[in-house]
Write a structure and sequence with these properties.
This protein has about 200 residues and is mostly beta strands. Helix content is about 15%, strand content about 40%. The protein is globular.
Length: about 200
């Protein structure tokens, strides 16, 4: 379980089928072999640690369903350590299970930061609402608006987020991982069951 508060940005040092290596000297010492880490919002198992680099296995299913398959050496990724019970809950509850990928539609400079719009895949529409939460590449963000006609949603990124996450690299066409709010998913399920029961 995660919160969508990115711990740091790591750098891919090796990527071959099924094997991903990421360097991050501040995060790697906190990892344990067999433990979890979120990479661009994808929960992966740490299989090996070598100095400031950790390794994770990435199966074909994960490569197909996330943007991890598009990574290459030198690419930056968001990293988040798993939630610890004694820590406070910032962000929102994030499982590290990507619901869909989507492309960046537009990036606009605003007075303080950027406004970024993303495609909104049809199946996720019931779970994305203005002022609700969504994880984009594992970063907990507040939805600033939804355009049902254009099938997009927009977030406002402050300078802190742009400095500390891969969001600074967002340009139109870039593929991102989306995970909808866990609570929204359960509310929708309960409402369906209530209506039919």
């Amino acid at each position: 379980m995660f919160t969508g508060i990115v711990s740091s940005v790591g750098r891919v040092v090796e990527w071959r089928p099924g094997h991903l290596a990421i360097e991050q000297p501040q995060v790697t010492p906190q990892l344990e072999r067999g433990g979890s880490i979120a990479v661009n919002g994808v929960c992966l198992t740490v299989t090996e640690i070598d100095g400031s680099t950790f390794f994770a296995d990435v199966v074909p299913e994960t490569r197909r369903r996330t943007n991890l398959g598009e990574l290459g050496p030198g690419d930056e990724v968001n990293l988040e350590l798993p939630l610890r019970l004694q820590a406070g809950l910032d962000g929102h509850l994030v499982q590290g299970h990507v619901d869909a990928t989507a492309r960046v539609s537009s990036v606009d400079d605003v007075e303080l930061g950027k406004e970024v719009s993303f495609e909104l895949p049809g199946p996720l529409t019931p779970y994305v609402a203005a002022k609700g939460s969504i994880a984009v590449d594992g970063t907990s963000l507040t939805v600033a608006g939804v355009d049902d006609g254009a099938a997009t949603f927009t977030v406002a990124l402050i300078p802190h987020t742009l400095e500390r996450t891969v969001a600074r690299h967002y340009t139109p066409g870039r593929l991102v991982n989306l995970e909808v709010d866990l609570v929204a998913r359960y509310v929708e399920r309960l409402m369906k069951n209530g209506a039919s029961g």
